[in-house]
From TrEMBL:
Biological source species: Pleuronectes platessa
NAD among keywords: no
Residue ranges of every copy of the VWFA domain listed in the record: 64-247
Record lineage: Eukaryota, Metazoa, Chordata, Craniata, Vertebrata
Entries under InterPro entries matching the protein: ECM_Assembly_Org (IPR050525), Kunitz_BPTI (IPR002223), Kunitz_BPTI_sf (IPR036880), Prtase_inh_Kunz-CS (IPR020901), VWF_A (IPR002035), vWFA_dom_sf (IPR036465)
GO cellular component, one term: collagen trimer
Region (Disordered): 1-36
Protein name, per record: Collagen alpha-1(XXVIII) chain-like
Domain of life of the organism encoding this protein: Eukaryota
Length: 427
């Protein structure tokens, strides 16, 4: 037998054959377990709006909403502008009218200022303009007094309408505040005010745990639905849709997406007929209104100035006189007092709006007011290039620092305290 030869090349693959006949059907398997029910239509809509807030707006159901805004030293003027942007973005997505949402704003630092009242309601644009012109105060953090002032606003609101407060703060409450935040928060909860709180503080801050505990006391229960923590003010915009979805809810009432996505459906809630306030502010005017609890105040204006008496004395409000606090440089020189600036601001009209029907106080005697820029109101101007300047406060006959925006404003603006005192202080 000879040697085995070399293997030849592999042949090509054969053609695919025809399919065979199908086999007999097998036995029917046992039924599986019943699955969980799918999401309801309302749950799907809720998830969509909480993720992206696509077109979310508050429905035109009655709502009383008050923003309580921290303007203390730790906030800073640039972050303060971000807070204004956040507030106006929320207001843009709400229906503002005497029949739907009414907006109030309490600005606070070492004093509290009512920028917009629930009693006198203007258009959405008027409220946004008033917010845009809010001055940066840059002092202490009297959160307790601010919550108390917000509670006072709600007492004059429409009866039977849901009351919601949104507090934005970045620090612990000042211990010098006579109105302790624990007491005023309990008072607000007792009066049926739903409190949402945005706390701005980095988790690495050594005061974070104490700050978190304080925020939880202020907020309504449950905390997971009413407390929101962010590391910095630049993250505020991420909360717009979340907070709006919470604020717009009442019981099972939902604010749905536009009809182009889903037909609008709203579950009715029992809301008693509301008393509608019909007092409107003039279009395009921004009026700041001084208010006083338990007394009717008369408008006091000097010939040199259109500004009314700023520091009305209210013995019922337990707020320390400004000039008794070590870091306060302006305010009422006598008695227990506070300033409350209410409504939307106007360069041509400042109003007193009584919160009760008790007898008015006697008008104060005429005050000696220096001439020139000293008699003009504090005006930080519309720009945002903030620098520290000095201004004269005729009520206290003293000079104080303020944040000047860098443009416009008026002549009540001095480079240093000495210039202010030489120009304006009288004896």
């Amino acid at each position: 037998m000879g040697d085995r030869g070399i293997s030849g090349p592999r042949g090509k693959k054969g053609d695919k054959g025809n399919y065979g006949e199908p086999g007999a059907a097998g036995r029917l398997g046992t039924p599986g377990e019943k699955g969980a029910p799918g999401l309801t239509r309302e749950e799907v809509i809720r998830i969509i709006r909480e993720i992206c807030g696509c077109g979310l707006k508050c429905r035109e159901s009655p709502l009383e909403l008050v923003f309580v805004i921290d303007s203390s030293e730790t906030v800073g003027p640039e972050n303060f502008e971000l807070v204004k942007d956040f507030m106006n973005a929320l207001i843009d997505r709400m229906s503002v009218s005497t029949e739907a949402s009414q907006i109030g704003v309490v600005l606070y630092s070492h004093v509290e200022m009512v920028v917009a009242s629930l009693q006198r309601q203007s258009s959405k644009e008027d409220i946004k303009a008033a917010i845009r012109r809010m001055p940066y105060l840059g002092k202490g953090t009297f959160t307790g007094s601010a919550i108390h002032r917000a509670t006072q606003l709600f007492r004059a609101s429409r009866p039977g309408v849901r009351k919601v407060a949104v507090v934005i703060t970045d620090g612990l409450a000042d211990p010098r505040d006579i109105m302790q935040f624990e007491e005023t928060a309990i008072e607000a909860h007792y009066e049926g005010i739903e409190m949402f709180v945005v706390g701005v503080m980095n988790k690495t801050d050594p005061l974070y745990e104490e700050f978190q505990a304080e925020i939880n006391v202020i907020a309504s229960d449950p905390d997971e639905k009413h407390v929101y923590f962010i590391d910095d003010f630049k993250s505020l915009h991420t909360l717009e849709s979340i907070i709006l979805s919470r604020v717009c809810e009442q019981d099972d009432t939902l604010a749905f997406l536009p009809n182009s996505i889903f037909p609008a459906v709203e579950i009715d809630a029992d809301i008693p007929d509301a008393t509608h306030f019909k007092e409107f502010l003039e279009e395009d005017n921004i009026k700041w209104e001084h208010t006083k609890e338990a007394a009717t105040a008369q408008t006091l204006q000097s010939p040199e100035s259109e500004w009314s008496d700023e520091n009305l004395v209210d013995n019922d409000l337990l707020v320390e006189p400004w000039n008794r606090l070590p870091d306060i440089t302006f305010g009422s020189p006598a008695g227990t007092g506070m300033t409350s600036i209410e409504g939307t601001q106007s360069p041509t009209q400042w109003l007193h709006d009584p919160l009760s029907t008790q007898a008015p106080n006697s008008p104060s005697p005429p005050r000696l007011v220096p001439v020139g820029g000293c008699s003009q109101p504090l005006d930080p101007g519309p720009c945002r290039q903030y620098v520290v300047k000095w201004y004269y406060d005729p009520e206290a006959n003293a000079c104080a620092q303020f944040w000047y925006g860098g443009c416009e404003g008026n002549a009540n603006n001095f480079e240093n305290e000495a210039n202010c005192r030489d120009s304006c202080i009288y004896t």
